[in-house]
Specification:
This protein has 6 helices and no strands. The chain is mainly alpha-helical.
């Protein structure tokens, strides 16, 4: 029988990998909760999920997790853009309809996924150990 011993990092402080991603994730998570509470629709679930994933990447994530996150955001963004275009005739030109409709979050997710993929292959990430 093979026993695997693991050492806990007791007494050692956790290091934040990316403060910018952590702060953006927290802001997006809070914005999603505000949208959920204020609009009463499920439009705020997407920013809550993306904000939670960004917070994780800022705290503990690595290169592979960032690339997987980027590809997931691109696929999710394409679905949201398609759904948003379908709902476009029913939208109103108000801020609450812009920020709670899937077209805005689809564009946001698509551009964020492209950014995450480029950053995953950047020299600043590949040099980390």
């Amino acid at each position: 029988m093979l026993m695997i011993k693991s050492k806990m990092n007791r007494g050692k402080r956790m290091k934040v990998r990316s403060l910018t991603a952590l702060i953006l994730g927290i802001i997006l998570f809070i914005l999603g909760i505000v949208i959920l509470v204020s609009s009463g629709s499920a439009g705020g679930v997407i920013p809550v999920l993306i904000g939670g994933a960004l917070s994780y990447l800022g705290w503990r994530g690595g290169r592979i997790a960032l690339i997987v996150f980027g590809h997931t955001c691109i696929v999710l963004g394409c679905f949201l853009i398609t759904w948003g275009i379908y709902l476009l005739p029913y939208s109103k030109p108000t801020l609450s309809h812009i920020f709670t409709r899937p077209l805005f979050w689809g564009l946001f997710s698509l551009m964020g996924g492209i950014c995450a993929n480029y950053h995953g292959f950047c020299q600043c990430i590949r040099r980390q150990r």
